[in-house]
Amino acid sequence: ERRARAVILDITGVRTIDARVADALLRAARAVRLLGAEAILTGIGPEVARTLIGLGFDLRGVVTLADLRAGVEHARRR
Length: 78
Hints:
This protein is 45% helix and 18% strand. It contains three helices and three strands; from the N terminus they run βαβαβα. The two termini are 16 Å apart.
């Protein structure tokens, strides 16, 4: 009855990540989707984006936005 329709994973301030952390983030996003909510990943800086791309992580099905404010606005529009 009160299920979340969106979950925001905000990584603002995280300058670098390794493969283990990236994998944990993506597994969390998949778990959110399995529970029927939309996963929104916000605050991805340039270095983190390069790492995710370099490691070949698939972000399909995960909404990625620049900052937390954009994530909240996106979630509200749902």
